[in-house]
Design goal:
Elements: H1 3-40, H2 45-75
Helix pairs in contact: 1-2
Length: 76
Amino acid sequence: MSIGTGLKLVGAGLAIGLAVVGAGQGQGQAAKGALESIGRNPQAYNKIFTPFLLAMALIEFQAILGLIIAFIIIGK
């Protein structure tokens, strides 16, 4: 394996690793906020749950995008 191939694999690993760490942090913060809000006001569940799910999907897209970028880096 050449140095270029090794650096390519390190870059791909960093791309997916940092994306997943960021997504995990974001999902944790979003879940914390939503659950605290629902805990304080249970009647607001219907108003909080749908935006929460949308936020989780958008945050998860960051991790998926990191995976796609890692595959692109490895493919070249």
